Amino acid sequence: MTLDDLDQTMRDYAAAVRCGAAARHGWPExxxxxxxxxxxxxxxxxxxxxxxxAKRDGQLIAAVCPGLxxxxxxxxxxxxxxxxxxPGQAALDVVKLATDPxxxxxxxxxxxxxxxxxxxSPQRPHTPHDPxxxxxxxxxxxxxx
Length: 145
Description:
two-stranded antiparallel ribbon; 37% helix; flat
């Protein structure tokens, strides 16, 4: 998939929402799910396309989805915020990813508190969580350095 392919898919989704056909086309009713899928997929495509340059530059291109965060924007949509993180709590892993040294074997990072991350592919086998990161972050490493 390319960014153009993803863009067309998201445009098709938006058109289906506007005409009331999203559920018939297999899309979930809640817009947050497709929007997060689109955001994470865009970052994964970009990371794949920029992998060699990012390695040379010592960069990690990552999508982080911290889960439910208690903000003014989220409160109108949820009646139970007892399991929500504060913005500060949600920022901890982002700050860690942004400030810690980059492991050259990490090719993608995915966070999904309360959800599940996509399964590992043969090109990116899943490894155990880095013990210095919370359970929200999974890393995918290449087979060979």
